[in-house]
Amino acid sequence: MRTKLIIMAVLVAVFGLVYLFYGLNFKFFEFSMSLRIPKFLAMLLVAYCIGAATLIFQTIIKNTIVTPCLLGMNSLYLLIHTAVMFFLGSASVFVLNKFASFMLDLVLMGSIATFLYSYLFRVTGHNVLYVLLTGTVMATLFSSLQNSMVRVMDPNEYDALLSSLVASFNNVNSDILGFAFIVAFVLSIVFYKDLKLLDAISLGKEMAINLGIDYDKVTKRLLLGVALFIAVATALVGPISFLGLIIANLSRQFFNTYRHSYLIAGSIFFGMIVLIVGQVIVERVFVLSVPISVFISIMGGGYFMYLLVVNRSRI
């Protein structure tokens, strides 16, 4: 296992160096690095947040073909940005100032997720399936409200809105990036003790309780952690729906173990490799004409169909 992790870490380092230095004109070294390093760090952070959150989410739900998108976080992100543009206009500080926009996304998505899912866990007796069903309904509601506002929006405002609705690493703000790293670091410390219980939780509720774990409280905290990690990644670059599905399942197939310390690390490394290679293709082959989220959606759709066929007997 450790050898595989070392190989993946080396691959991340190699692809990272390729991304940072390929085609570099050393006459403009400082300027080029000021553009490439923030994007590279953003890819590492997004892979960390989505890779860990998706694998934890799949273990809690006990299903390897689901993603945290079922909690409605992506739809909520689209609704927040559309509502800001619709009610405040393109001259709003939440549109022009990236730090204010990031804070708005983080606060609203984090607080709504915390309040909503804490309430749902309490009223449903910590039933995860009810929470999932409610998340799916909420996602549909958020999408319907967002589509309704888009239909009556001024075309110029809609044109300005489009760029924020598509995941992109091309406009990462270094100030936001530093704050996002701090938030992710604090969340990692807060939820570290719960992460160590994932191996036991994967055995099932009854077995976990027999091992002395307060199953309901731990799964509730972990699900809130998943929502907050997804909020950080989405607020930083936008919604990337299929990334978590791809990298979590690649990690499970590659490591083929129950130990979540390896699975989570593998998912994060796979996420870094996918994002770095994808961004190289976007910048060098398609000259930034196609966002990376398009490639990930195409790959993720095909991979999802493959997983459905392979796991059809267990669905």
Task: Throw out a few tags for this protein.
single chain; 315 residues; mainly alpha; ABC transporter involved in vitamin B12 uptake, BtuC; 78% helix; 0% strand; globular; Iron chelate uptake ABC transporter family permease subunit; transport; transmembrane transporter activity; transmembrane; ABC_transptr_permease_BtuC
- The whole-number mean of residue pLDDT values reads 81
Q: What gyration radius follows from the Cα positions, in whole Å?
A: 20 Å
- Percent range for β-strand residues: under 5%
CATH architecture of the domain at 40-240: Orthogonal Bundle
Uncertain segments are none
Query: Looking at the chains present, what oligomeric state does this protein adopt?
Result: single chain
End-to-end CA span: 29 Å
List the topology elements:
Elements: H1 2-21, H2 29-61, H3 73-88, H4 93-96, H5 98-123, H6 128-151, H7 155-165, H8 174-190, H9 192-195, H10 198-201, H11 205-210, H12 215-237, H13 243-255, H14 260-284, H15 292-310
Helix pairs in contact: 1-14, 2-8, 2-12, 2-13, 2-14, 3-5, 3-6, 3-7, 5-12, 8-12, 13-14
